[in-house]
Amino acid sequence: MRIGLFIPCYVNAIYPQVALASYKLLTHFGMDVDYPVDQTCCGQPMANAGFEDKALPLANQFNELFDQYDYIVAPSGSCVGFVKDGYPRIMEKDGCTSKVSGKVYDMCEFLHDILKIDSLPGSFPHKVSLHNSCHGLRELKLGSASELNIKPYSKIKDLLSLVKDVEVVEPERVDECCGFGGMFSIEEPAVSIRMGNDKVGCHIATGAEYITGPDSSCLMHMGGIVDKNKLPIKMIHVVEILAAGL
Q: Which partner from 10, 23, 174, 178 sits 20 to 30 angstroms from 31, CA to CA?
């Protein structure tokens, strides 16, 4: 199974350890992993700002670069969601077809739904509070959104249950947004910060040592609030926990 490892630009620049953990996990499970060195931003920031035409060249480049792989996997639910749901609409305007949207997966989604892993070798002896990112929850269906009133499930909790010694808890208002929202945090910074403060407070109230989740963007937003206010909790991407011991 040939995997194209898609590392979003902000992960590459700020959280390279998440990229390395993703590579370790995929190779541990026997995947033939390639990292296309010419990959760039997927175009989500332009599209979110209302400039979808500016995202089109990046979508076309991504389309050509990653079409050769059986699956495309990335440790970022929001970027995966954009490639999956945004590319077909954007490229259709230019008379093109997305060849990648049907085979791009978030790392947790890929491990849970495609590889269907049932064991992990590592240990993470810490209490972690799970943050359900909006894109992962509502676009990629990594868990059950509360407003749907369906039987609760969480693919991320399923995966974390395979890690020895980890204790997983969830905050009050479990799927409430942290306030990042890409352009929202720039256009409405005061509201974004207040939402972030509230969310971090809910995570701290669980008594957890770490906040974890599938999207570094949400962890970056909350991490900034934690650092600025010197709060007693740390951030860690869920992929880093899953790769513990590899």
A: 10
Whether 128 and 241 have beta carbons less than 8 Å apart is answered as: yes
Per this entry, what is the length of the chain?
Answer: 246
- pLDDT greater than 90 at residue 118: yes
Q: Could you count the other beta carbons within 10 Å of the beta carbon of residue 114? A: 15
Which pair of structure tokens corresponds to residue 5?
Answer: 């490892």
Q: What angle do CA 121, 127, 133 make, to 5 degrees?
A: 90
Which pLDDT does position 183 carry in this prediction? 82
- Give 55-70 pLDDT, tens digit per residue: 999 999 999 999 999 9
Encoding tokens for residue 56? 């089109």
From 219, 213, 239, 241, select the one nearest 19 (Cα to Cα): 239
Check residues 27 and 49 and name the one with the higher pLDDT: 27
Q: In the chain, how long is the greatest CA-to-CA distance?
A: 52
The CA distance from 174 to 182, in Å, is 20
**In angstroms, rounded to a whole number, what is the distance separating the alpha carbons of residues 160 and 166?**
7
The span from the CA of 73 to the CA of 95, in Å, is: 26
| Strand 127-130 versus strand 167-169 pairing type | parallel
Long-range contacts of 116-122 (CB under 8 A, 24+ apart): 117/29, 117/159, 117/162, 118/162, 119/162, 120/159, 120/162, 120/163, 120/242, 120/245, 121/28, 121/245, 121/246, 122/163, 122/164, 122/241, 122/242, 122/243, 122/244, 122/245, 122/246
CB 33 within 8 A of CB 22: no
Beta-strand runs (E) in the chain: 2-5, 32-34, 71-74, 104-106, 127-130, 167-169, 210-213, 234-237
